[in-house]
Specification:
Layout: E1 5-9, H1 13-23, E2 28-33, H2 36-46, E3 50-53, H3 62-71, E4 77-82, H4 87-95, E5 100-103, H5 107-119, E6 124-125
Helix pairs in contact: 2-3
């Protein structure tokens, strides 16, 4: 069975390192970037199954990256990984057809579950926040 390919985007190098350490034993890390422009430039070449996006990237928001990926026809599922534990952000993410929304405060307990659920065609949200429909 082919390993799930992930593309990671976070403007904090320590978070990227944490993500790689957490996910690399189980998943294929196709790329890790600190800005949205790099994600948009490399996604077609790297062909990930899933993109894990921070909402607060240096050059543009993760929401903008997600919009552009969808507009370009990118088939990868998107999980937002963020410090923003706010229902308005969660709704905005799912309005963009995100497969998941994970709080950075719950990265170790929720991220792998979110990836697995997304790859099975489901949706995941950290905490008690309801999934937007």
């Amino acid at each position: 069975m082919r390993s799930i390919r992930l593309l990671l985007a976070d403007d904090n190098p320590e978070v990227l390192e944490t993500l790689i350490d957490l996910l690399e034993p189980t998943y294929d890390i196709a790329g890790a970037f600190s800005d949205g422009t790099s994600v948009l430039q490399q996604v077609a070449v790297l062909n990930p199954d899933l993109v894990i996006l921070d909402i607060s990237l240096g050059d543009m928001t993760g929401f903008e990256v997600a919009r552009r990926l969808k507009k370009s026809g990118c088939p990868a599922k998107i999980i937002f990984l963020t410090v923003h534990e706010n229902i308005d952000f969660v709704r905005a993410a799912f309005d963009l057809d995100a497969a998941g929304y994970v709080f950075k405060s719950r990265i170790s307990s929720d991220l792998v579950d979110a990836i697995n659920k997304a790859c099975e065609g489901g949706h995941f949200s950290s905490g008690e926040l309801p999934l937007a429909q």
